[in-house]
Amino acid sequence: MSLRAEAPAAPTVRRFTRAERWVHRTTAVLMGVCVVTAAFLYIPEFAELVGRRELVVRVHEWAGLALPVPVLAGLASRAFRADLGHLNRFGPHDRRWLRAALHRDKRRESRPAAKFNAGQKVYAAWIAGATLVMLGTGLLMWFTHLTPIMWRTSATFVHDWLALTVGVVLAGHIGMALADPESRRGMRTGSVTREWAEREHRLWRP
């Protein structure tokens, strides 16, 4: 038996509830399905690998229609509603965080953050808006008999180019998550170390 005493576990704080993590994971899966199926539908090299294109189209459509469902279901959670309130509030410290990010100032004191930093708030607002636009344009493309051809052509143009932008932004989001193991742990287990919370989100009072 080892005589070496085990180091005490770092104190942790609760960051996300089970419901919040469920919303994030389910939305991520649906968004991933949309992105992957879109790649097989629009990139020629990938399209050649698909034997049943019609099936891929249907999976893409239904995954897109289901995208708002996890968020709507999450509204039943008080913690999730509270986090939406945090994401929708933009204070002076958030403007300071954005100025520091634009000037590539990586000093921690120049990037104050509460539970969510300004970058996370901007991303959440952008992806929510992009999802609604993608859903609207997708419906116009799906129900072809309800709209004039000019509307459908415009919807297709917006849908395709916005899909490309969403893919790039999601890649950036995943890259940021990969660079911060403690943040990933918070989304995976619901808890983070108090030291990380005080260092990265010092205005947050859990």
Defining traits:
two-stranded antiparallel ribbon; 206 residues; 69% helix; mainly alpha
- Kindly estimate the percentage of residues that lie in beta strands according to DSSP: under 5%
Class by helix and strand content? mainly alpha
- How many E-type strands? 2
Multimeric state: single chain
Strand order of the largest sheet: 1-2
What is the count of DSSP helices, taking H or I runs of 4+ residues? 10
- Give Rg in angstroms: 21 Å
Helix percent band? 55-70%
Low-confidence stretches: none
Tell me the overall shape. elongated
Cα end-to-end separation: 39 Å
Order of helices and strands: EHHHHHHHHHEH
Main sheet properties:
2 strands, antiparallel
Please state the average pLDDT score: 90
Blueprint of the fold:
Layout: E1 12-14, H1 18-42, H2 44-47, H3 53-66, H4 68-74, H5 78-88, H6 92-102, H7 118-142, H8 149-178, H9 181-189, E2 191-193, H10 194-200
Antiparallel strand pairs: 1-2
Short description:
The protein has 206 residues and is mainly α. 69% of the residues lie in helices and 3% in strands. The protein has a two-stranded antiparallel ribbon.
Description:
With 206 residues, the protein is mostly helical. The protein has 10 helices and 2 strands; from the N terminus they run βαααααααααβα. A two-stranded antiparallel sheet has the order 1-2. The chain is elongated.
